[in-house]
Amino acid sequence: MTSTTQAHQKLVDHDALSVDPYTVCAQFREAGPVHRITGTDGLPAWLVTRYDDVRQAMADPRLSLDKRNATPGGYRGMALPPALDANLLNMDPPDHTRIRRLVSRAFTPRQIEQLREPIQRTADRLLDSIALQEHADLIASYAAPLPITVICDLLGVAPADRLDFRAWTDALIAPDPTQPSRAKEAVGNMLAFFTRLIATKRTAPADDLLSALIAVRDEEDRLSEDELMSLAFLILVAGYENTVHLIGNAILTLLRHPDQLADLRTDSARLSAAVEELARYDGPVPLAIRRFPTEDVTIGGVTIPAGETVLLSLAAAHRDPRRFAEPDRFDIDRDATGHLALGHGIHYCLGAPLARMEAEIALGALFDRFPDLTLGVAPSELQWRPSMRSRGLLALPVRTAHMTGAAEPA
């Protein structure tokens, strides 16, 4: 890469970023630690690319998540009403600390461990349906319904009320520029859904997380109404969105590395460590949530003015040879601890233990049930979401057993 202009052009190339973000990110990373770029929204931002800088920035209290610290007109984010926008991804302490403390009790290791058997039952039920098919799309039939079932059970969303969350989140996270109204419609649908759901829970509370949060709001007055609804929205969307792609990307990676998949099958005790490497190698979040300096800050020798948008590239950091040896090589025996796929610092993902458990159960159950599982198309035919916010497949076609005489995809 010889000029920042070339770098800017590559950043906004959605095709290159969605199919192979790591080549683009490597060019940025090796050209320098911090770049002034033009984002896909046409506005300027600063891209941080190297592991040590990204990790330190994620924990730097001078880098705010509160959009009120952005330079006026310098950031154009997802348009959400206050009832959905007052969530942890837009907050700094002390509000962030207060709300995180309220919900963290639902995500302790003890609480999460109690979900293991229900998650296993859900995975097995989904696989029972897949076993009846010779061909399947593992995103639509497995990677998506598993986490949405888990998070809806946790919140207390009845099966009859589980609407098309995938369509709504797709419209928000990867909006179609040819259909700009879809994102606005998705926001309206989500707002109406959570309004109805909270009203129902107020009338008939149950033993679930949302009922507990409503009690905190109504009886203890430790949440505003907007914070209550925004928190429910964030738990559902984040608990679903990232886990879908963590599982989907992991399945694809293992299918493309059959020797390492074979090793996992012979020693399931290695699955936990393998999930960490899978999250590093091709995780669901290419960029951390944007940040805004509350004062001029220097990162990688570059001074970034207060209020400007800072983007921390996890995709670049996870392939940084300064931190991970041979970073472009997938290795289930690698010590991938320290990866940033689930965050770092005070914004570390509350649901990280749940996401890890879901991925371990999903992968173990799938490959135990279908030892001959293969891709149903050539890897080059797979389609990725055109998004910088998340990395995930639109579909993952597979064959549940080898077809006699059929050619294997390249």
Would you summarize the structure shown here?
The protein is mainly alpha-helical. It has helices spanning 4-11, 14-19, 21-31, 51-58, 82-85, 95-104, 109-113, 116-130, 138-143, 145-155, 165-173, 181-203, 209-218, 225-255, 258-266, 271-281, 314-317, 352-369; strands at residues 34-38, 44-48, 63-64, 135-137, 292-293, 297-299, 302-304, 310-312, 374-375, 397-399.
Describe the structure.
There is one protein chain. This protein is 49% helix and 8% strand. It is mainly alpha-helical. It has one domain: Cytochrome p450, CATH 1.10.630.10. Strands 1-2-8 form a three-stranded mixed β-sheet. Strands 4-10-9 form a three-stranded antiparallel β-sheet. Strands 3-5 form a two-stranded antiparallel sheet. α8 packs parallel to α18 and α11 packs across α12 (181-203). The protein is globular and about 55 Å long.
Q: Outline the biggest β-sheet.
A: 3 strands, mixed
Structural class: mainly alpha
CATH class identity: Mainly Alpha
Proportion of strand residues: 5-15%
Low-confidence stretches: 1-12, 402-410
* SSE ordering: HHHEEHEHHHHEHHHHHHHHEEEEHHEE
Number of domains: 1
Helix percent reads 40-55%
Describe the global form: globular
CATH topology (fold) name: Cytochrome p450
Q: What is the terminal-to-terminal distance?
A: 31 Å
- CATH homologous superfamily grouping: Cytochrome P450
In spatial order, strands of the major sheet run 1-2-8
Radius of gyration: 21 Å
Global mean pLDDT = 88
In the CATH hierarchy, the architecture is Orthogonal Bundle
What's the total count of β strands?
10
Given the structure, what is the number of helices? 18
